[in-house]
Amino acid sequence: MSKLSKLLERLRLEDDARLVAPEKAGSDCVVSDNPATGEPLMAVRLDSAEDLEKSIQRCVAVAAQWKQLPAPQRGEIVRRIGEAFREAKDDLGELVSLECGKIRAEGLGEVQECIDIADFSVGLSRQLYGLTMHSERPSHRMYEQWHPLGTIGCITAFNFPAAVWAWNAMIAGVCGNATLWKPSLLTPLVAIACHKIAARVMKKQELFKPSSGDARDVFSLIIGTDSDVAERMVADRRLPLISATGSCRMGRRVGQVVAGRLGRTLLELGGNNAIIVMPDADLKLVERAVLFGAVGTAGQRCTTTRRLILHESIADKFLEQLVKHYGRVTIGDPLEKATLMGPLISPRSRQDMRAAIERAQQEGCHVLCGGIPGMDRWDKTPGYFVEPTILRAPQGKVPAVCCEETFAPILFALTVKNLDEAIALQNGVDQGLSSAIFTDSVRSAERFLSHAGSDCGIANVNLGTSGAEIGGAFGGEKDTGGGRESGSDSWKQYMRRQTCTINWGTDLPLAQGITFGTS
Ligand code: NAD
After folding, report:
1. Residue from 156, 180, 184 whose mutation best tests the ligand 1 pocket (most atoms within 8 A of CB)
2. Of the listed 302, 365, 369, 402, which one is catalytic?
3. How crowded is residue 132: how many other Cβ atoms within 10 Å of its Cβ?
4. Whose CA is nearest to atom 7 of ligand 1?
């Protein structure tokens, strides 16, 4: 029995009706590759537009009953889902590494995020608070309350194949919604595994037994192409909220279609994140933050550090050191303990990286390490490996290529004369997700965090751009889409607010003191 078969067996996926041996895959299947070998792992049968219609109907029906269960009981069910993820952590983490190419520590970290957000949601299930307001009218009471939306359409990217679904589905679940999940076709196995974990809990629990339909439909999964499934979901009015994570290109399309039907979106799109390094920074911390931020996950995080904005007085020396660290990054099988960087997700991603490096060179950038020779060194190795690359931008020039997000481990180094210039450079791109400054000056740090500082959704001082905690609201501004998910009060996006006024007096006073007719 192969390693993969054993893993699928431990995850209790071996009999899943969707799975097809790769050699038997037909045109109705998508084949999931192992990016570290380029070999097929398994094929997955695709759902059709008709399957989508049935799924939406089932979700809508179950959501109408799920919302009647008291929120703390919904929280109790989510608590059990979190427990099931705890039990499956090692195996699911390994599957994330196999299918998505993340190193083992990051695969496990991804499952930990699912567990953390389930825990967070359990507490939240007793804290879906509304405010009370003092009415301007005598003998009136005003308050706001929050009701579930119905069924949430959740579209996710390949690079967080489990966690982004969990961020949405666990919170949407305690808020009283069903979630219909459309994962990336690059990572369908992880999606099936996550869905199965939740479905088993839903089947076994005794708290929610819908009179019609199936409790498992609260956490529903649909795996299909963009034309058959994703675009139809986005256009469907029965899904009042579309939460979509992916490229800005995708977000622009989804945003327009959902706005056209006056629905709601929660968009979590591309980033182009920068670290600013001031002369008074602790450079040892910067080195570690840049390594994790720019090389971690092979540069395939929305929060990956893509631009390094260095004060000119420290730039040369710092880059010299950084290049040495880059030279020590072990690249290879993501499941090997010593590996720090696994492969890119696909041959297409490799081509995109190559094209970006070529463009950068045409725009005057110098390769400090990696580059095209670094890519060539991995050309004959199976899998989609590359070398992490640092490109130094020409003095006083911002190459156009570094204003775009290339989803690969390319770091652009830029130099500035002062903090104002650094902030202008950091904000001078279309995306606005994550940002960081390294400095020991309170004045510089506070300036960076002020209204005249970073324009991003995430702004950090003395830590990198990558690896946010689930407790804060996660998301970014401008072309990153404006969405906020995960912690803080992000739950409000999965609910509708109702303002309620109760008149307990014997008169009918009007607001703003208006008199209408005789009183
Ligand atoms: P992608 O845009 O290619 O695909 C993302 C998802 O959108 C997939 O499920 C895909 O099938 C779907 N999709 C694509 N076109 C669609 C359409 N017209 N209508 C409906 N759905 C559509 O992105 P990817 O390559 O999977 O992921 C990488 C991108 O995701 C990067 O840009 C990265 O920055 C971004 N990302 C953002 C966040 C965040 O929280 N801001 C998190 C993870 C990834």
Report:
1. 184
2. 302
3. 11
4. 246
Residues 359 and 243 in one domain: no
439 C-alpha to ligand 1 centroid (Å):
34
Closest CA to 466 of 275, 311, 279: 275
Domain of 292, in residue numbers: 273-471
335 and 244 in a common domain: no
Active site residue 363: no
**Average pLDDT score, the chain:** 97
Q: Based on the structure, what is the number of domains in the chain?
A: 2
In a domain, 59, yes or no: yes
Specify the pTM. Answer: 0.98
Residue 384 shares a structural domain with residue 277: yes
Is 268 a catalytic site residue? yes
Rounded distance between C-alpha atoms, residue 298 and residue 342, angstroms: 6
What is the rounded distance in angstroms from the CA atom of residue 97 to the CA atom of residue 100? 5
Tell me the CATH number at 226.
Answer: 3.40.605.10
Residue 261 lies in a domain: yes
How far does residue 386's CA lie from ligand 1's centre (Å)?
A: 22
Contact status, residue 276 vs residue 422, Cβ threshold 8 Å? yes
Residues 170 and 293 in one domain: no
The Å distance, Cα 244 to ligand 1 centre, comes to: 7
Judge whether residue 519 has pLDDT over 60: no
Residue whose CA is at the smallest distance from ligand 1 atom 8: 184
Q: How far apart are CA 346 and CA 435, in angstroms?
A: 27
Q: Is the pLDDT of residue 518 over 90?
A: no
Residue nearest to atom 39 of ligand 1 (CA): 268
Instruction: Give the domain CATH number at 371.
Output: 3.40.309.10
